[in-house]
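Notes to self, Protein kinase domain-containing protein:
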Amino acid sequence: MMAVKQVEIPQTLSDRNDTRQVTVVEALKFESETLKDLDHPNIVQYLGFEETPSNLSIFLEYVPGGSIGSCLLKHGKFDEEVTKSFTGQILDGLEYLHSKGILHRDLKADNILVEKSGVCKISDFGISKRTDDMGGAMTAMKGTVFWMAPEVINSQKKGYNFKIDIWSMGCVVLEMWAGMRPWNGDEVVAVMFKLYQAKLPPPVPDDVILSPLADDFRRKCFAINPEERPTASELRRHKYLTLPDNWVFTGFT
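result:
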């Protein structure tokens, strides 16, 4: 069994002049080009690409457990060990992506798939970006605002690099702790203002009690200065992610 992502190719002149339709097609082509060279257990597996006169299709492995986002909607906030396990796996995938010169740029719970065995796979590379210089700067404002780092909002001034994925990783962990999206209750414009002007990270909901190690992990992800944020490799070694001996994923409780 496989999953298929398919878009229609604009046929009429008006469709070909429709920026939204053209962007969707280009994003799928780019996603195919990005995924075909990747091979990692925590990245969704690319199986093929097909172009017909009317459609473009990407064939991907089918991940039956749904996304972290859908699991949170169904089961609520995760147990601490599940959050640690998923976070470590996502960081393994991010470390691999960054080593290949790829910024994901849209990391969020809805874009991370979960096998029924508890294996996580990063997906949805439609707005990812390849760069040969991992210290270099991108300037396009891409991503979803609630998971977006401050330097992306203000990208025309200094640009940004792979550290934006670390901020988004912090947002995903916050989602798993809280059972809801970051900045829950705030609208897009309000969040953009808080990121751009106040340089604030998403708040921890009142009912979420963090251990000192968990809070240190959060603070490292949400360092306002991207140079102070750890790499995926460094964050993967954080003591917060240590799991009990012989722990195995047995589902959501």
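- The chain is about 40% helix and 10% strand.
- The beta strands are 2-8, 46-51, 55-61, 102-103, 112-114, 120-122, 129-130.
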